[in-house]
Amino acid sequence: MNIVVLVKSVPDLVEDLEIDATTGLLDRSFLRLIPGELDDHALEEALILKERHGGSVTVVTVDTGDVDETLYTALAKGADRAVKVVVEGLEPGPDNTRLAAIFHRVLAGIPFDLVLTGTQAVDDLDGFLGPMVAEAAGLPYVGYVTRVESTDGKVVARKEYPGGLCADIEVTRPAVLGIQAAEKPPRYVVTSKVMEAMKSATIEEETSPEVPAGSGLAVSRMYVPETGAHAEMIEGTVEQVAEALAKLMRDRGVVA
Amino acid sequence: MPVGTSVEFLEKVVAATPDGGHIRKCLQCGTCSGICPYGFAMDYPPRSLIAALRADDWHGVLESDTIWLCMSCFACASVCPVKIPLTRGLLSTLKTEMLVGGSIPQELQTALSNSRRYGNPMGESPRKRADWAKGFPIPVPVMAEHRQPVDVLWFVGDYPSYHPRVQHVARALAKILFVMGVKFGILGPEENSDGDTQAFTGEWGLFELLARKNVKAMTKYSFREVITGDPHAFNAIKHEYPRLGFDRPVKHYTQFLLEHMDRWKPLLGQGPAMRVTYHDPCYLGRANENNIYEEPRQLLQAIPGVEFVEMSHNRALSLCCGGGGGGMWLDGFSWEKAHARTTEWRVREAVAAGAEVLAVACPYETPRFEDAIKSTGLEGKLVVKDIVELIAEAIFGRERAT
Lengths: 256, 402
What we know:
The structure holds two protein chains of two kinds. Chain A contains six helices and eleven strands. Chain A is of the alpha/beta class.
């Protein structure tokens, strides 16, 4: 089974996020970009599937200036190919419509049975990247997946729903799956193996001809959540608190 | 799973250290396993490990995960009659095999990943490494901004930089250096984890990555010597950094403060009478025979009001706090496997020795022993203080020490 893993770079929340006063957007000057946490789970699930069924794992990410370490680490973990997509003139910032178009274009040149990506990322949370890639490629999509099993020409994806429900969904291959969690926590690869990959493995660079159209949506205001009115603490003895509470409920019409 | 054979592994052990070949001389006396604080909970304490390798039971060795109980405290290596470098050679090489094979407890993995990405095991922002000195009345120059030669480059270390409890220790040392009139500077955001403890989890590649960054940063600046309050940083800078091209002398603060006692001792006021004992950190004492045993005791005895008492495990026989060799990041695992905490034995020992204060000289120890005081119900009977906190209290008074 040949698997492509789509990895997107997201802001590292270890650093304080600040809003640029002039642009009104995230100040990216000190921003550190890291691979999305769930994309790391997608890679882990891909490696587990490769160990189980053979085949290959190709990791694809869009160049943001600092993705080589991500790709070499993936190669050291056991990925077979690493592709860095260079898109000249690409504005920084999340736009899943544009990103999906870029990934779709790259996927045309890679034979695959399965595409895995994180089901969502910290910079969007809407989880639309996977569905949009699937839509563009005319493939089925299942998101919030925590387990993937392969059968003849098909995969069974375990999807998690809110409220503790799960469903095993059979999908024909090729398909796109949004990974919520790999079966096991993402593996650690020792530094010496990453260094070895840096010396002996190669990152394939692909230049994307033009910047595809984005969503057309513009951010009108970005701000730190404002705190609302605080809760009122009622002090005093049990009797005083009870009385104040009863009065409050009568006043507000909760009780007659 | 890792591959290979017992023979291949033993070859790696022999090559790991200059005296690695001593492993061939093992008498199977078992002194190592006897002194190992967690030997009772290990499937293969050092003697059994060597026996298993001789019997070619490599598979059995790899199936067990209790090597992660090893805190790299050097107790076994220090008592071995044929001087096998057990800690630096055998045990750390086995940990490397486990890491390469992917057999690694999750909590340790987090610390190692953080160290690689952020340069500190707790995953804090590298940009905030000098924030402990923000808004502090004492100037703590960061070398990149200071642009002047200093006498002393202070390698602060991970926990004094970021851990809220240990930041007090950093501030106490800053105050002491200031009143001594020492021209000092720190690396701030350019400083990375010293890498010593990561190395003793078997992650020598990570150690090298971190150490090279530190060597590169330090060699940019003009200074006479390095001081540090972290015995692990001291050990790494003294014994491992030279092969990466760093040749400046390094001292633990206990050595530096003793050498310059005339510059701070006259400032000490009469403090309250207190009985104080001292916990020898493994990496000031046994590790690499650093043997820094008397300096800390002399500092403590110089403080007016201190009555010094000794615990039964002292100097080379000190009992590890459990933080070395990755233990700092394996507390959950260690408890699950051993159902014991060396810190709890240690604080009970301090109280049994009649001490009211347990003095320490390693940044791992204040939070570890304070936790143990809570879990043993000894609150109110024993407090933990770094030696520099006691000195700063004697100079500035308890309220203004940090």
